[in-house]
Design goal:
There is one protein chain. The chain is of the alpha+beta class and about 100 residues long. It contains 3 helices and 3 strands. It has a single domain (about 5-100), classed as 2-Layer Sandwich (Alpha-Beta Plaits). About 35% of the residues lie in helices and about 30% in strands. A 3-stranded mixed beta sheet has the order 1-2-3, covered by helices on one side. The chain is elongated, with a radius of gyration of 17 Å.
């Protein structure tokens, strides 16, 4: 099994992780520096999503020690628009173009 697949399996074992969207790993000597993008339910609170991200980071460090030296986890909500929510009209614009329109 490839090393990135082992990392993916570890992420998916964390309660609350619904999908692993991307994994990047950089080698530095014998160590790996990992960036992972996970998806969580879109209806949970930001603090709960943050906890799931932190648990994912800790699990990767614990189960892949000493090979994995550091982990950065990006947490994304999954299917939030499917809950009857609508996005504000400015959501598809970039941050800067939104504020330029307001001037």
């Amino acid at each position: 099994m490839k090393e990135t697949e082992k990392l993916r399996v570890t992420c998916l074992r964390v309660n609350g992780v619904k999908a692993v969207q991307e994994i990047k790993a950089r080698k530095s000597g014998p160590y790996l520096y990992v960036e992972v993008m996970i998806a969580v339910d879109g209806y949970i609170s930001a603090s709960a999503a943050h906890r799931i991200g932190e648990l994912t980071r800790l699990e990767l460090l614990k189960h892949h020690s000493p090979r994995v030296a550091n982990v950065v986890v990006d947490v994304n909500p999954l299917e939030t628009a499917g809950l009857g929510e609508s996005y504000p009209h400015w959501a598809s614009k970039s941050y800067y173009s939104y504020y330029l329109d307001c001037e």
